[in-house]
Predict the structure.
Amino acid sequence: MSKLDIMAKEKGEKGKAARSKRYVLGLTMFMGGVALLDQFCSLVEGPLMPYMLADFGISAAEFALWQGIYGIICFSVFFIAWAFDRVGRKKGILILMISLGVPAGLIIIPMPFHLFMIVYAFLIMGTLSNTWQLPITEEAPAEKRATYGGIAFLIGLIPLYAFIAIPIADSSLGWRWAYGLMFFWMLVLLIPLYFMKETQRWKDTQEEHRHEVLKIKTALKSLKRKDLQYVAISTIVYTLWTITFKLVSTWGGYFYMDIIGLTSAEYRSILTVGGLLTMVGAILSGLLMDKLGRIGTLIIGCVGSSIAFLGLALTASPVFFWMGYLCMPIILGWIMIYFNEIFPTRIRATANGVTNTLSRGGYVVGPLIAAALLTLFPDMVGLWITAGLLILIPLLSLLIKPYETKGQELEAIQEKR
């Protein structure tokens, strides 16, 4: 072990010495609960889409068009990420929870379509930061960082949306209450938030910089050339994943219920299996990153997703639908772990905020592409083929030879990358 490795390890041990295994596990469970709030708000629109279209009386292409236009609001996600560096991880988690729970609660109230789209856009904006991973990244031991992150991701992927969204939409409550349920989950999460401690690494960083206020302009200037290189890589990968995700997750229910002609009960069965497979994908993502490495995990996720969507275009078989639900979380797990650990602690959330902000273009471009494809290909074959091709493009980022971070302390990564 080199002197640099030893110094980095000593700094890493110092930053996490006060955290017991029991605390880290409890923190992981709590972040999993926040992830569940996040993922539910992000994925529930899929099974609810036919109900939303019928309620507002618009076509799929029209909804996708306005979804893209109002998606501009999602660029404000940067301020959530910046807040994590400015006021700390604990207060940042509170801001994130409010940005998810409050809009979800407002959706319960009947409102005109365009007002709904504004509230919906702010809700989606909250789902885009993925900053709930930061406390785990900074508190978990290096050799288990991806595993703990994978556990939280796994909890977040419990397919509540598959279990309850359609039954709620079919009941007297209506589809709006499927969203509204998450407001009450936010209130429950305030309990473990009270017991959460600020991460030691963030406090150490604040001490090193004498509690200097990290203003937005200062934070951006703190990004060095190497940071900007990884911002570019992460932006490309995340943007393409986002576009593909919006194409697939939003229109799966519409495809099977309105195009193929399945009943809501039949689609619910398909979606439930798919939702459970996202949990398997989360487990695989963590295991693959710890055993195979970050780069190999990205390759497996992208190739598997591409095969799934191209197969869905050719056959409409639920098997390929399920394969997509298995492989897309592998890529997302890679995104959340790798992009959190590759940046230095002081600007970690800010760098992720820049990445998330730039990649939010996918939440504008994705729906606009969907609007065009739904018009040109009413059977949605063109949409699935496009998704299958787009998800392969992130592999081009490997030509830049990104740094392999498997099993290393954050301080060592900062020095060696």
Observations:
- The two ends are 17 Å apart (CA to CA).
- The domain at 22-194+222-397 is CATH 1.20.1250.20 (Growth Hormone; Chain: A;).
- Confidence is low (pLDDT under 50) at residues 1-16.
- Residues 56 and 112 are 8 Å apart (CA to CA).
